[in-house]
UniProtKB/TrEMBL annotation:
<dbReference type="GO" id="GO:0046349">
    <property type="term" value="P:amino sugar biosynthetic process"/>
</dbReference>
<dbReference type="GO" id="GO:0004360">
    <property type="term" value="F:glutamine-fructose-6-phosphate transaminase (isomerizing) activity"/>
</dbReference>
<dbReference type="GO" id="GO:0006047">
    <property type="term" value="P:UDP-N-acetylglucosamine metabolic process"/>
</dbReference>
<feature type="domain" description="SIS">
    <location>
        <begin position="38"/>
        <end position="179"/>
    </location>
</feature>
<dbReference type="GO" id="GO:0006002">
    <property type="term" value="P:fructose 6-phosphate metabolic process"/>
</dbReference>
<keyword id="KW-0963">Cytoplasm</keyword>
<feature type="domain" description="SIS">
    <location>
        <begin position="212"/>
        <end position="354"/>
    </location>
</feature>
<dbReference type="GO" id="GO:0005829">
    <property type="term" value="C:cytosol"/>
</dbReference>
<dbReference type="GO" id="GO:0005975">
    <property type="term" value="P:carbohydrate metabolic process"/>
</dbReference>
<protein>
    <recommendedName>
        <fullName>Glutamine--fructose-6-phosphate aminotransferase [isomerizing]</fullName>
        <ecNumber>2.6.1.16</ecNumber>
    </recommendedName>
</protein>
<dbReference type="GO" id="GO:0097367">
    <property type="term" value="F:carbohydrate derivative binding"/>
</dbReference>
<keyword id="KW-0315">Glutamine amidotransferase</keyword>
<feature type="active site" description="For Fru-6P isomerization activity">
    <location>
        <position position="359"/>
    </location>
</feature>
<comment type="subunit">
    <text>Homodimer.</text>
</comment>
<keyword id="KW-0032">Aminotransferase</keyword>
<keyword id="KW-0677">Repeat</keyword>
<comment type="function">
    <text>Catalyzes the first step in hexosamine metabolism, converting fructose-6P into glucosamine-6P using glutamine as a nitrogen source.</text>
</comment>
Length: 364
């Protein structure tokens, strides 16, 4: 049931601190400060390349995970949308691991990519939310998310749980490759373990996000900008808004703005900037200022320090807790979900059953 919530989507957004904690519990051994994953029947240390395949929001989780596989494990990682992967004659060499990511575990394109990779001799890991699903059964290594049933067509809690699993798995692969010593592992585990509390803190801004939703609800087009692991979050924010409010939205890598999309900027196109303070902050802010210099209306999502440093001149700011960059993509998922939700409610759309969409897409 929806409990006290008006929609399943809102209920599922609010469940995130609990279900991410639940998911992390099965992947972290807190007492020993270690990640602990199911042991596959192949040697993880022999994995030389990772290919991540998924659709929609699950694909964006894969885009974030690419950073982790490359940064932590130094294993080359490709990410592809499942419907593209199969038809481009992808090169699959020995020592390749395919990771499929799917809430339902039944998405036809992703399943077809899994079967294709298997026939080419790849090992398969599946990050799925439905443990009895076809993908779960067909994988060599099952990495369940423990998000519980997700009813809203717009995926929310499945996404943050996918990120939790993928971060733990990237750390596990890094360890297997001899790239993560005990001290680094301990720090990583500590940062991951902070995610549930940080998600909770992010939810506290629900009312202020609701209060600014009218600024976005009147727009015809909205842009989302992010850099590094927050770039996929910009894509996710735009997808959420399109799906449930029917407002045209696009996500861009912040640095790409000046290569074209900045031509769209005027005072009618709100630009949502995702910029946690940290190593990429200054660069993102200078892209944001390019937008403002052309009359663009910016909503800045950052932490207290970021909002202090760059919030002036924005039409609104949303202050997130200050978190380690590893968990920022999880935490910043919350404001983009809530913003899409409140804009959709303001527009009076059917949040849980948006037009033309199905929860599980079982045709190619
Ligand atoms: O069940 P899956 O994770 O494989 O589904 C993939 C996409 O269909 C799904 O994420 C879709 O994009 C959602 N409606 C996004 O909110």
């Amino acid at each position: 049931s929806k409990g006290n919530h008006r929609h399943y989507m809102l209920k599922e957004i609010y469940e995130q601190p609990v279900v991410v904690a639940q998911t992390l519990r099965s992947y972290l051994r807190r007492m020993e400060d270690q990640v602990s994953l199911p042991v596959p029947d192949f040697d993880l240390g022999t994995i030389r390349r990772v290919t991540i395949v998924a659709c929609g929001t699950s694909y964006y989780a894969g885009m974030v995970a690419k950073y982790w596989f490359e940064q932590l494990a130094r294993v080359p990682a490709d990410v592809d949308v499942a419907s593209e992967f199969r038809y481009r004659a992808p090169v699959m060499e020995d020592g390749g691991l395919m990771i499929v990511i799917s809430q339902s575990g039944e998405t036809a394109d992703t399943l077809a990519a899994l079967r294709h990779a298997r026939s080419e001799g790849q090992k398969i890991a599946a990050v799925v939310n439905v443990p009895t699903s076809t993908m779960a059964r067909e994988a060599d290594l099952l990495l369940p998310t423990h998000a519980g049933p997700e009813i809203g067509v717009a995926s929310t809690k499945a996404f943050t749980c996918q990120l939790a699993v993928l971060a733990a798995f990237a750390a596990n692969l890094a360890r297997a490759k001899g790239r993560l010593d005990a001290k680094a592992e301990k720090e990583l585990v500590r940062h991951l373990a902070e995610a549930p509390a940080a998600l909770n803190a992010a939810l506290a801004y629900d009312e202020s996000i609701e209060a600014m939703a009218h600024l976005i609800a009147v727009a015809r087009d909205v842009l989302y900008l992010g850099r590094g692991p927050d770039y996929p979050l910009a894509l996710e924010g735009a997808l959420k808004l399109k799906e449930i409010s029917y407002i045209h939205a696009e996500g861009y890598a912040a640095g790409e703005m000046k290569h074209g999309p900045i031509a769209l900027i005027d005072d009618k196109v709100p630009v949502i900037v995702l910029a946690p303070s940290g190593p990429l902050f200054e660069k993102t802010v200078s892209n944001m200022q390019e937008v403002q210099a052309r009359g663009g209306k910016v909503v800045l999502i950052s932490d207290y320090d970021g909002v202090q440093a760059a919030g002036e001149g924005c039409i609104a700011t949303i202050t997130m807790p200050k978190v380690h960059p590893l968990i920022a993509p999880m935490v910043y998922a919350v404001p983009v979900q809530l913003l899409a939700y409140h804009v959709a409610v303001a527009k009076g759309t059917d949040v849980d059953q948006p037009r033309n969409l199905a929860k599980s897409v079982t045709v190619e």
